[in-house]
Fold this sequence. Notes:
Elements: H1 3-7, H2 16-47, H3 57-86
Helix pairs in contact: 2-3
Amino acid sequence: MLGGPRASGLDPTAHAYPAIVWTLSGWAMLHLVVGVMMQGYAFARSGAGKMTPGHDADLWNVTLYWHFAAFQAVTTTLVLGGFPLLL
């Protein structure tokens, strides 16, 4: 996500479009990092024996969050990759 704007040489201080590209890419990467942290928390609780079949809300929340993060990352990628083709 962040490799694309960097490799293409987009300077976020040069114009509004590169700034938007960097902002959307950073926002998507932030959500992916938070998802990894949530997944680690769920693994730690599972390893500590705190997660049982009756008390598995952490796992359900992480699963729901990953669905949101995947949708958001795909949408952001499609917008950033497809919008320049429309111009």
